[in-house]
Amino acid sequence: MAPLCAHVIIAKNCAACGCAKLAKVSKSERLNIPMPRVKRAFDLVITPGGIRRRVIECRTAIYRCEHCGQIMAPAEQYHRLAKHFHGLMSWAMYQHVAHRLSGGTIEEMLREFFGLTVGNEEIHMLKSLMARYYSKTYRHLIQKILLGPVLHIDETQVKLRTGKGYVWVFTSMEEVVFMYRPTREGGFLQEMLKDFRGVLVSDFFFAYDSIDCPQQKCLIHLIRDMNQEILNNPFDEDLQSVTQPFASLLRTIVTTVDTHGLKRKHLERHSGEVDEFFNVLSALSFRSEPAQALQDRLMKNRNKLFAFIHHNGVPWNNNNAENAIKRFAYYREDTVGIMREKGLNDYLVLLSIYQTCRYKGISFLKFLLSRERDIDRFCAGNRSPRRRSAIELYPKGFIPPHLVTLRKPKISQPPNDSSTIGDDR
After folding, report:
1. Can you tell me the distance from the alpha carbon of 221 to that of 316, in angstroms, rounded to the nearest whole number?
2. Which of 228, 234, 291, 322 could form a disulfide with 238 if both were Cys (CB 3.0 to 4.6 A apart)?
């Protein structure tokens, strides 16, 4: 595989004494120095006209320090040189997250389309590197959602290799964040949402009741439960005396939403109807257990069922969170019991960015290729051009999996002698 471009890695200071006076070692001297000096890196150049492979050959120059005489190569840059550059990683993660392709499928596509051998373990490494690169974007999304006027929240179960856990989703109208938690306990929500001043839209899961902020319960969930109760008790007149007035009230309000949108000045006109419905409901007495249970449920959530009529832009359903979590549910079907927590967390960072791009109507692939980490700046198109380095380096302290065993210090083994052979102690 012939390289398309070459790059020489240079040193600026002596690694031993820090002196900046370095002289290149001659070719004759260089032959006697057992130092690795050539690596290849791979990238994909993606344009509207197509995709092409790019092979970069990186060489290290060998230097002699004029101060201390140390012979050296620029070891740090050389050892941290990335094998796969950002364009290739962006393409691979776009396929994995946007199209739910497995690591094995991506491995085969890279081999068939571009003649590149990228193992499944390396693809997991690419996911980890991309999640690390965009961790700042992920944190910014969390901050922006918590500062917004509306927060949608939902959760779903996931099965890992080590057992089950839960994935939570937090969304505004345009931003999405997925988060893994080992249990369904909602104690972390109180700390996370302690400064949230908007309206929380959720289902009827009890963990949300302890959060101190205005809340709107998803009325679609409530309607589904009502319909199921009616199917289970088709001749229960007490039950129908609750569901029919509620349905009539909701239809009236939804008609206003369809006409004027989620605007407080139009929706608050229904405040009197809402109060009348609950006043009548509280005065009723039922023999039917389903009707009594529904009455108790409605009265318990009285201030959370029609809170949206007192605010601007607050939906009466939790569709934003449910639509977002469907994207994870599709992925979950293909990975039941084979994911690890680390890999799942990396995936959720990238899925959060992908779903946010979808909600904002921008290209996930183009955002990744831009190397921008601020989605709003990317949307505005006012990105300042940055000079890109000819080479890309792994983050400090990161060792790729295929080099871990090579860089482990060798442990000297004690010599065998006849006294230890067959000793079972």
Report:
1. 10
2. 291
- What does DSSP say about strands 71-72 and 163-171: parallel, antiparallel, or unpaired? unpaired
Taking the alpha carbons of 118, 122, 123, 125 in that order, is the dihedral positive or negative?
negative
Both tokens assigned to 405 = 């065993």
Position 48, amino acid? P
Q: Where are the domains of the chain?
A: 1-81, 143-320
Give the number of other Cβ atoms within 10 Å of residue 310's Cβ: 16
d(CA 310, CA 217): 14
Q: Which residue has the tokens 């609750």?
A: 242
pTM of the model: 0.88
Instruction: Calculate the average pLDDT of the chain.
Output: 88
Q: What is the pLDDT of residues 270-317, one digit of tens each?
A: 999 999 999 999 999 999 999 999 999 999 999 999 999 999 999 999
Looking up tokens 């318990």 gives 300
- List Cβ neighbours of 393 (8 Å cut-off, separation of 6 or more): 77, 80, 81, 82
**C-alpha dist (Å) from residue 420 to 411, 424, 425:** 19, 9, 10
Q: Could you report the per-residue pLDDT of 42-95, keeping only the tens digit for each?
A: 999 999 999 999 998 888 777 778 788 777 777 677 778 899 999 999 999 999
**Positive/negative CA dihedral, 251, 254, 259, 264:** positive
Integer Cα distance of 32 and 198 in angstroms: 69
Evaluate whether 204 touches 304 at the Cβ level (below 8 Å).
no
CB within 8 A of 147, min separation 6: which ones? none
Residues present in the chain in total: 425
Structure tokens at 269: 């006109």
Q: Tell me which H or E stretch contains 277.
A: helix 271-283
What DSSP string describes 309-343?
GGSSS--SS-HHHHHHHHHHHHHHHHSTTTB-HHH
Say if CB 72 and CB 63 are below 8 A apart: yes
H or E element that contains 52: strand 50-60
Alpha carbons 149 and 131: distance in angstroms, whole number: 28
DSSP assignments along 173-235, one per residue: SS-EEEEEESSS--HHHHHHTTT--SEEEE-S-GGGGGS-S-EEE-HHHHHHHHHHHHHH-TT
Check: CB of residue 152 under 8 Å from CB of residue 320.
yes
